[in-house]
Amino acid sequence: MNVTIYDVAREANVSMATVSRVVNGNPNVKPATRKKVLNTIERLGYRPNAVARGLASKKTTTVGVIIPDISSIFFSELARGIDDIATMYNYNIILSNSDQNKDKELRLINTMFEKQVDGLIYMGAAITEDHVNQLKTSPVPVSLAATVDASNTIPSVNIDYEIAAYEATTLLIQNGTTHPIYVTAEDEDSAVSERKYSGYVRAIKEANQSVNEEYIIQADYSYESGMEAAEEILNMNDYPKAVFVSTDEMALGVIHGFQDKGVQVPEDIEVVGFDNTRLATMVRPTLSTVVQPMYDIGAVAMRLLTKFMNNEKVDEQNVVLPHRIVERNSTKAE
Amino acid sequence: MNVTIYDVAREANVSMATVSRVVNGNPNVKPATRKKVLNTIERLGYRPNAVARGLASKKTTTVGVIIPDISSIFFSELARGIDDIATMYNYNIILSNSDQNKDKELRLINTMFEKQVDGLIYMGAAITEDHVNQLKTSPVPVSLAATVDASNTIPSVNIDYEIAAYEATTLLIQNGTTHPIYVTAEDEDSAVSERKYSGYVRAIKEANQSVNEEYIIQADYSYESGMEAAEEILNMNDYPKAVFVSTDEMALGVIHGFQDKGVQVPEDIEVVGFDNTRLATMVRPTLSTVVQPMYDIGAVAMRLLTKFMNNEKVDEQNVVLPHRIVERNSTKAE
DNA sequence: GTGAAAGCGCTAACAA
DNA sequence: TTGTTAGCGCTTTCAC
């Protein structure tokens, strides 16, 4: 049997309440008794049981994190931002991978509630009605990180994907390609993908072009699918000389796909990515890309959650962080 | 107030015990009553409270995971392996980043115990005596993943780092360089680093060379430090024409550091990495490297932990997984 | 097959 | 400043 608060109380000749007070830093304890208690805690090697504490206080100081895939270079960066802020506010994280599988997502949300998390951070491409329903009946605060809920009803932290994609596409247009190619990994129902797409389309239309479906290539987030996209592009006759890729990892694949066929980037064709993961500087040529502050999105989402958990006032529950474009060497200098 | 097992019992005209039985799939319940209970659970929207359950049963079905940095491409892959097997055995994961900071590590271990995890998976470079002491008094099973405890007293899953480094170095020697350079990120007290180093040294000695300290370069795990190492190498006069780098990410830095100065890999100088992270195929030339099965290490470590948690018999508590070397294009073909 | 009741280890009134 | 006591929501004997 482990040593409990009761053992400490008995050995220190005080009540459980007093022990509880010193453990919780309650100031209403005479310094002398505090010291006495602290000593016997030390002596017995007492370690508070967080589960019992959670049952009694209805607070677990842990938050749930549902993430598509922690091994993704994009999401793991987000997760780090979440954990750092969580640690700062004395929370721990229960982390689960969903693989963007709807059933699993719904099941995980439920598991998190069963485990009595004090809050939930959710990441995932598609926020369906079922998601919204389950999330809206949540017993605890929820915040979305890098995932947009079209109904705008759940707190979230994002960048403006539409404008970001518009700007990336426009950069390419200004550099001389009237209808850049778009390589995307469209998930069904993904509001993020939708917004990137519509930013892309808007840029094309503003350049007085009508959108050519042939120039929109479906890939699947992987590096390899980027390489395949490159091949597909080279097989077109008279293809546009610029491509906008919706994630950095695929963009690396596109670049290498070109290079492997002897096509030079950016001389023969330009490439811009999205996210600015660490990969962007780990290629040659270095990748021009849209900077999405992943760590910050995670950190801010967690901070937002703490505000809800502490009933602090929040001004704006749908935070939009700034983005920008870094021009590196995969696009032509002006 | 939430709906509890007591509410369900009352509404279904049975005892709490019976409700508990159906919730836990205990067969000793008449099908009719089971159905009745299930119906009222559904009707009331009852959701078991895992915290209360944990307090009563002394099992939380969650395991702690202490990891140096989840945003690392190496560790996030390990974490994925851990979570997948955890999910398979119905556990959740409490994940915390330690940054390999000893105080934080020790504190985190304690927090995990307070939270009453059923087991603990630990990753970290240095297993000091303090670590061993704290881990040995653990109330629950522990397993180390990709981290070696020199005292060999804690269950672990690893590859043989000494042999792996020996083989990588030997490959370079056989390709014609008698004393390859070694770029490492030596942590103090890191048994893994130590073993890699000693494999490297053994290979050099077997080639009848004495080790030249000048050819051992300290970096810090980062891509940038790899680039700096490359520069340092190019500044040596008459440097060896092969370098063994102790992680893939640094190896990419080394390759690009060379290329940025117009030095060709592998024609002018060969490079081999370590780990075989996804990065290894995302460079040009693709990286020859030591394959460390990161996902599997995580998965096996978690599986090992489940065995301990279920009191299954385990034959070997220090598992050594196979490794191999993939020769890609950063080394010369035979 | 089902129920009664005693905890699990702690917090949080409330009293003193 | 300190102690008493009633739960928190569940599991788990032990009876029946």
Describe the secondary structure blueprint for this structure.
Two copies of one chain form a homodimer.
Chain A: H1 5-12, H2 16-23, H3 31-44, H4 50-57, E1 62-67, H5 73-88, E2 92-97, H6 102-114, E3 119-122, H7 129-136, E4 142-145, E5 156-159, H8 161-174, E6 181-184, H9 191-206, E7 216-218, H10 223-235, E8 242-245, H11 248-260, E9 270-275, E10 288-291, H12 294-309, E11 318-321, E12 324-326
Parallel strand pairs in A: 1-2, 1-3, 3-4, 4-5, 5-11, 6-7, 6-8, 8-9, 9-10
Antiparallel strand pairs in A: 10-12
Chain A binds a DNA duplex (16 and 16 nucleotides) through helix 2 and helix 4.
Describe the structure.
The structure is a homodimer of 334-residue chains. With 334 residues, chain A is an alpha/beta fold. Helices cover 44% and strands 16% of the residues of chain A. The first copy, chain A, has 12 helices and 12 strands. In chain A, the strands form 2 sheets. Chain A has a 6-stranded parallel beta sheet, sandwiched between helices. In chain A, strands 7-6-8-9-10-12 form a 6-stranded mixed beta sheet, with helices on both faces. In chain A, strand 8, helix 11 (248-260) and strand 9 form a beta-alpha-beta unit. In chain A, helix 6 (102-114) packs parallel to helix 7, helix 8 (161-174) packs parallel to helix 9 (191-206) and helix 10 packs across helix 11 (248-260). Chain A is elongated and about 90 Å long. Chain A starts with a helix and ends in an 8-residue tail after the last strand. Chains A and B meet through helix 4, helix 5, strand 2, helix 6 and helix 11 of A and helix 4, helix 5, strand 2, helix 6 and helix 11 of B. Strand 2 of chain A pairs antiparallel with strand 2 (92-97) of chain B. The structure holds a DNA duplex (16 and 16 nucleotides). Chains A, B: This is Catabolite control protein A. Chains A, B: Global transcriptional regulator of carbon catabolite repression (CCR) and carbon catabolite activation (CCA), which ensures optimal energy usage under diverse conditions.
